[in-house]
Amino acid sequence: MSSVQDHAIMGPPLVKRVTDELKTSSIDDRQYRIIRLLNYLEVLLVHNPKMDKASVALDVNVGNFSDNKDMPSIAHAIEHRLNQLEKSQLNPKHPYCYFPTGNFKVLKTIPESKGLDLCVLGRERLNELQSLVVDLFSNVPNKDLLRNRWEDQVLFTEDQFAVQCFAKLVAGLRQLQLSFPFLDEEWLFKTWPSRYIIHLIGHKGPGSIIAYIKSKGWASLLVASVDQVCPGTSASYFTSMICSVMQKPLPRQWLLCGESLLRQFDPVAISKGVEFPGKCLPGEWNERENWYGTEYILEKIPEGLLAELLKVVNIPVGGQIPSLHLPTKNRFLPSNPEVTRKEFGRPVLAPRLIRNNQVGRTWWKKDDTFWVPKATTIISIRNPLMFASAGNYIKSTLCTDLVYHAFEESLYDARLVGMWYRVRLDSRGWKVEVSGWNNQLAILLEQVLTEMCNLDITDTMFEMVQERTIRIYKGRGLISDYIYVKEQFITELPIITVEDTRYFYKQVISQLHFEAFIYGDVLPEEEWSVPRSFKLPTGLNYLYRKSLKDPINVNHCIGYYLYVVFDQLRTKENLGYVVFGDLQSESNPMYLSSRIDLFLQEQGQALQDIPAAIFETYKESETAKHWAQIINKSYNFEAVTKADIIKFYSIFIDPKSTSRAKLMVHLIASNASTKPTECKD
After folding, report:
1. How far is CA 159 from each of CA 90, 91, 98, 155, 560, rounded to the nearest angstrom?
2. Which letter does DSSP use for residue 353 in this model?
């Protein structure tokens, strides 16, 4: 391999070192260097000695904006409905209106009728990576092409302001989308005025727009974003992302953080971004979008509505709606984001049981691998009443959504500082997940559980959640959740009242059992004894067939479930587990089943062929791995080996095994076509 020094001896330097000093986080131990070759190809080199893979990404700064108008989607081929409808209504001379996705017509029929940056990541040292880049990329010709710019065209022409479009959509989707022209922020990387605007409009805390319209029952979701349509962490993800950032006019030292940090406050730019555009003054679907065939109506916004909007814009100080106000101070900001580093000699493999009583169990494991000032808590909250009937299950679903909407306002500040929470319904009950800064985690968890205990179910919020849930279930064409089917839910949903739901929620919340796991930079309490695992019976072999009623649907569906019972490592308790998958296709379900069996049969050899180093990369994260053992009550925290997986496969997955138990669900389409019914290799 030639070296950088060899190149220097043979002639003038082939490399200009731009910088080695990139701004990084305090826990980033990788080494970086930016160089520029004689052909002006700019390269970011990344040395990570812990990586077992390498990655190279090349960004040529060419996309669908560079397509010819009469041959769209070529860029996308080399490299979806409502969005394209919006594009089609804009200035036809601007490339943003082109069709970027591609279909048979634009990628075959029409053609038949008619800046470069590099990022390299690897375990090799920077000098070695640099030498490789010089050898491989120095001969890339520099054509001195100008960067594409469309400064002579605007997205909105004058006749495209103050218009409204009603689109005919499927699946019961209902949304209002407002679009405005905005500043080009390519050179505003120090101030990013859009960040302030979308933060204030999209804020979900007390005093926010969404909190107000939710209280009125008008909407359940508001999203604000700025799309820069054109400028005037796996290894591959990192290189692809950074390579794209390198195309922007950021100082090279800011490549890793330039789009994340706000360095200056520019109130003038923010005001310019929210100025009301002065040019905005001015049944039957009568139009169809060219590519997706979306039916719509396009018309001018009525003068009366525009007049009302202008009154709102010009409302005097003091006349605003009292419940709308700016966000308050964020109480979840971490005060001391430092790691409590306590060496344990070698990493501890198993969590400890630190609490075990009639109410629940709590497991704990200190983070002795990543050493970051964060922690995660997962709690499984159980009550059999939640699944005792289809009606109870639907009430549990409604309550889960109501809890989510209550959290969205009161706990929104936690998300802004990088903390995270979620409450969802699973087969056991509620699964509560909270993660974030270690010194704020207890505060967030306490508020989550307090909000759940004191949930206020208002009439307005209940009606909105109930109506949305009805639309979702009516749009489903498959068997529904767990042990109940869609028809049962559709029958129960309309007759459930807000009083029923309030009473049900009080019953559930008053008698619960929990299992919790805490992982991260937190310290434990005292340790308790570990409970033994329990047994589950073996599975059954069944086929359930059901005909679908939708006369338009041509897709069959197959649900394929394997029920397995396995011995714990070094124990004799039998544990149940379900491996499952769902597939929709026009092919006959029996044919699909045979293809699944064939696929599973081939995986036996694939498991044998996986190198040990690659096998290790497939393992779960620390938190997910230990939580799986806790929630399944196996409490086996030993490391799983490749031999364990192969044995497991041969007994319970391999179609040739006599121990395998299988349940199949076949949903038969009423408008089925004739597709293969036999398995042909």
Report:
1. 10, 10, 19, 12, 55
2. E
609-651: per-residue pLDDT in tens? 888 777 777 666 677 777 777 777 667 777 778 888 888 888 8
| pLDDT one-digit tens code per residue, 355-365 | 888 888 899 88
- Residue 575's region, left for phi above 0, alpha for psi from -120 to 50, else beta, is beta
Low-confidence ranges of the chain (pLDDT < 50): 1-11, 73-80, 82, 106-114, 231-233, 276, 278-282, 526-537, 566-578, 676-681
Three-state DSSP state, 7: helix
Would you put residue 102 in left (φ > 0), alpha (ψ -120 to 50) or beta? Answer: left
**CB atoms near residue 415 (< 10 Å):** 16
Report pTM: 0.60
CA distances (Å), origin 13, targets 1, 117, 142, 179: 17, 20, 17, 51
3-state secondary structure of 363: strand
The C-alpha atoms of residue 260 and residue 203 are separated, in whole angstroms, by 18
Q: What are phi and psi of 225, to 5 degrees?
A: -155, 160
Compute the distance between CA of residue 347 and CA of residue 370 in angstroms, rounded to an integer.
Answer: 11
Among 628, 639, 616, which Cα is nearest to 348's?
639
Residue indicated by tokens 């179910």: 457
8 Å CB contact between 522 and 438: yes
Hey, what's the torsion of the CAs at 240, 244, 247, 253, to 10 degrees?
-70
Ordered structural domains, the chain, with CATH: 4-313 (3.30.830.10), 346-531 (3.30.830.10), 533-681 (3.30.830.10)
| Cα(41)–Cα(39) distance, integer angstroms | 6
| Alpha-carbon dihedral angle through residues 523, 525, 526, 527, given to the nearest 10 degrees | -60
pLDDT score at 112:
40
Percent of the chain with pLDDT over 70: 73
CB 66 within 8 A of CB 72: no
Distance between alpha carbon 619 and the CA centroid of its chain, in Å? Answer: 20
